[in-house]
Write a structure and sequence with these properties.
The chain starts with 12 loop residues before the first helix and ends with a helix. The chain has 429 residues and is mainly alpha-helical. The protein has one domain: Growth Hormone, Chain: A (Up-down Bundle). It is globular, with a radius of gyration of 20 Å. Helix content is 82%, strand content 0%.
Length: 429
């Protein structure tokens, strides 16, 4: 049997679901390796004598710069060559670099290891999005993307839980090693059990002018009014999401006095389980509401982000740990509603030959600005406020950054104005 299905082949329900399941595990592994540094950050800071700005660089920009930049050329390859093989190679690379992070003796070495993780993870999401889109029809694509996006929460669950306990028992170096090794086996599992799915249209020949193709795809995305607002709104929401979520481990340890294991368990159970349920619910609910009016694909996110704004402020201002836990659960459940819909609509609004590259461009925007600059800005603001507010400087830095969610909700609302018409045009191409 060929490892590559032919154009027009329809995968069975089992094949679709199994492939999706493996991709979810790989996506979860990427977020374990990506986010574990946030629960280890306070221990790393104390051991290597780092500032919050340096922590912000390690958490965000060191990873995001190469992750986002290399994602685009890899997506071009994924639009033409085996997406399965690209993903398998990527997971093996990032897992090995995560394990090597535990050997770092200073800031520079750890930053280089995190750059290596970013290089590997660049080959995961764009080809995965393209595979899912080719396997699932439009009416179930939002739910499929929601299940895939829940890999983030599974990764949060494993990363925070394992990272917190291993840090407390054996130190942060051992934590990097333990979470890095399993990803290598996932890459081998993908190669040995998953078949490359058929594309909805034949792959294009490789263009010699990659930059022009990237630019033309970006211009196409910006010319679609609903997609333009989705890209801007998603970037703003992710800026807040990464800027706050990646600091929550430090926040609970520094502000509320939790141990590494306590903070890891709290963030794992709430961010992983509650957040995972919420991410899936967001995709499922959007699909249901959109049966009546397709504008709900984006209007649901617009409403949720606006309503959540005061709860975010309350979460960062409260001094009561019990209240903080309940508020975190609310934010975790509703916070991921935007994710599956944003990626599903990006794929649905673009022609098949541009989908992997379109996903990479969206990831570039949200990762350079969101993951790269969000945590870094929080760290810089925390250092800047420290002389006036002491340890509470982190609290106020997180609060100010979270206000950008309101701006993001406006763009999701504006996207709804032309979404139905844009989807109709895309379906005819």
């Amino acid at each position: 049997m060929s490892d590559i299905a032919q154009v027009g082949d329809t995968p069975s329900k089992f094949t679709r679901n199994y492939t999706l399941g493996v991709l979810v595990l790989i996506y979860a592994s990427s977020h374990v390796d990506r986010q574990i540094v946030s629960i280890l950050a306070e221990s790393i800071k104390q051991d290597l004598l780092l500032s919050d700005t340096q922590l912000g660089f390690l958490i965000g920009l060191s990873f995001a710069l190469f992750y986002a930049t290399l994602g685009i050329p890899i997506a071009i390859l994924a639009d033409r060559y085996s997406r399965r093989n690209i993903i398998a190679a990527a997971v093996i690379v990032w897992s090995g670099m995560t394990a090597l992070s535990g050997l770092a003796a200073n800031f520079t070495q750890l930053a280089l290891a995190r750059i290596g993780v970013g290089i590997g993870e660049a080959g995961s999401s764009p080809p995965s999005h393209s595979m899912i889109t080719d396997m699932f029809p439009l009416e179930s694509r939002g739910a499929a993307m929601g299940i895939y996006a829940a890999g983030i929460n599974l990764g949060v669950l494993i990363g925070f839980l394992v990272g917190g306990f291993i840090d407390e028992w054996y130190g942060w170096r051992m934590a990097f090693f333990i979470v890095g090794i399993p990803g290598i086996f996932l890459g081998l599992l993908l190669l040995s059990t998953v078949r490359e799915p058929a594309r909805t249209s034949p792959p294009k020949p490789v263009s010699r002018n990659y930059l022009n193709e990237i630019w033309q795809t970006f211009l196409l995305m910006m010319s679609i009014r609903s997609l333009r607002h989705i890209v801007i709104g998603c970037t703003l929401v992710v800026f807040v999401g990464y800027g706050t979520t990646y600091w929550n481990g430090v926040y609970f340890r520094r502000i509320h006095g939790l141990s590494p294991a306590e903070a890891g368990t709290l963030l794992a159970l709430i961010g992983g389980i509650v957040g995972g349920i919420g991410t899936f619910t967001g995709g499922w609910l959007a699909d249901k509401l959109a049966q009546r009016d397709k504008r709900f694909y984006v209007w649901l996110t617009a409403g949720v982000k606006l309503v959540l704004a005061p709860f975010v402020a309350w979460f960062y201002l409260t001094t009561d740990i019990v209240t903080a836990r309940w508020l975190l659960a609310i934010l975790a459940f509703f916070g991921g509603f935007y994710l599956s819909v944003s990626f599903a609509m990006t794929q649905s609004l673009l022609p098949a030959s541009r989908r992997a590259l379109g996903a990479a461009i969206l990831l570039f925007c949200i990762n350079i600005l969101g993951l790269g600059l969000g945590p870094l800005l929080v760290g810089m603001m925390s250092d800047g406020f420290a002389s006036s507010y002491g340890t509470d400087s982190l609290r106020y830095a997180l609060l100010l950054v979270s206000l950008l969610n309101i701006w993001g909700s406006v763009h999701y609302y504006l996207a709804g104005r032309t979404l139905a018409a844009d989807l109709e045009i895309a379906s005819r191409e």
